[in-house]
Specification:
Layout (H helix, E strand, L loop, with lengths): L1 E5 L7 H12 L3 E7 L19 E5 L2 E4 L3 H12 L16 E8 L11 H11 L4 E7 L18 H17 L5 E8 L8 E3 L5 E2 L3 E6 L5 E6 L4 E2 L6 H6 L3 E7 L5 H7 L1
Parallel strand pairs: 1-2, 1-5, 2-4, 5-6, 6-7, 8-13
Antiparallel strand pairs: 3-4, 7-13, 9-12, 10-11
Helix pairs in contact: 1-4, 2-3
């Protein structure tokens, strides 16, 4: 299968590099296009309209892109890479999937509103391509779109092995007008299994610290606090807290569900 692989942690993140290696070892043709630097928390932001962005080859079928996660998907599929250009001469061979991740940190419940990881998967789904967002949740539930930081204590190997092995099952849950969101617990033994779930309600307690400056200005900086949430039975938050990988099907369009159901 041909796979477009991206993320929001950046092209040098172990999550994406190890996953690319595992998917290629499994026989897939993987094209990696990831942000040149950390782009966490950018949701569905698009930066093309602010000027051109550089696409740089960093390895075989691997590229860094000076843009957002969504930019990476658009660039790869709409002309940046001739081999994937959906509108190119004769059109490119169809992709089997767009895979975003593996993210450093959870994208559970309402985290997906902010997540660049989820944004990239959503963009793939907009193009009608089976799309999957993958995240590794620290301590089962902490962190929203984890971002940069030390990789000490992150069990990438088991998460990558699980994702590569269960990829057909995960993508098998994909339906048009949706993407699949999977969160894996950060366990040395890997997830206990894969459980379908619904997105939990998350509670964010971040604070802004403001310091008065010259000219009446006020300098504001964010102080991140632990993210809470309601671990209801059947929720992704509960599944991950119990050592399971959660799988949720996320509707992508701001339209009435009844309308989409009638259209299908």
């Amino acid at each position: 299968m041909r796979i477009l692989l991206t993320n929001d942690d950046g092209a040098d993140s172990p999550g994406i590099l190890l996953l690319a290696e595992a998917l290629r070892a499994a026989g897939h043709r993987v094209f990696m296009v990831a942000p040149a630097s950390d782009a966490s928390g950018l949701s569905h932001a698009i930066s093309f309209f602010k000027g051109s962005r550089k696409l740089a080859e960093i390895g075989r079928d691997s590229y860094s892109f000076e843009g957002t996660p969504v930019d990476c998907v658009i660039a790869a599929l709409r002309g940046g890479l001739p081999e994937l250009d959906m509108d190119g001469a004769g059109k490119a061979e169809p992709l089997g999937a767009v895979v975003s991740g593996i993210n450093r940190g959870a994208n559970l419940g309402t985290d997906i509103v902010f997540s660049g990881t989820a944004g990239a998967a959503r963009q793939g789904a907009f193009y009608g391509i089976p799309s999957l967002a993958l995240s590794l949740a620290a301590d089962g539930s902490n962190g929203a779109d984890g971002g940069s930081g030390s990789d000490a204590g992150w069990h990438w190997g088991p998460a990558v092995e699980f994702a590569a092995r269960r990829l057909p099952e995960m993508l098998g849950r994909w339906r048009p007008d949706s993407f699949v969101n999977v969160n894996m617990p950060n366990r040395a033994e890997g997830p206990l299994g894969l459980e379908r779930s619904f997105p939990a309600l998350r509670a964010y307690r971040d604070r802004i610290e403001a310091v008065d400056g010259e000219g009446g200005c006020r300098h504001c900086s964010a102080k991140a606090e632990a993210v809470g949430g309601l671990a209801e039975e059947g929720s992704d938050l509960r599944a991950v807290s119990l050592g399971m990988a959660s799988l949720s099907e996320i509707f992508i369009h701001p339209a009435l569900l009844e309308h989409v159901a009638r259209r299908r």
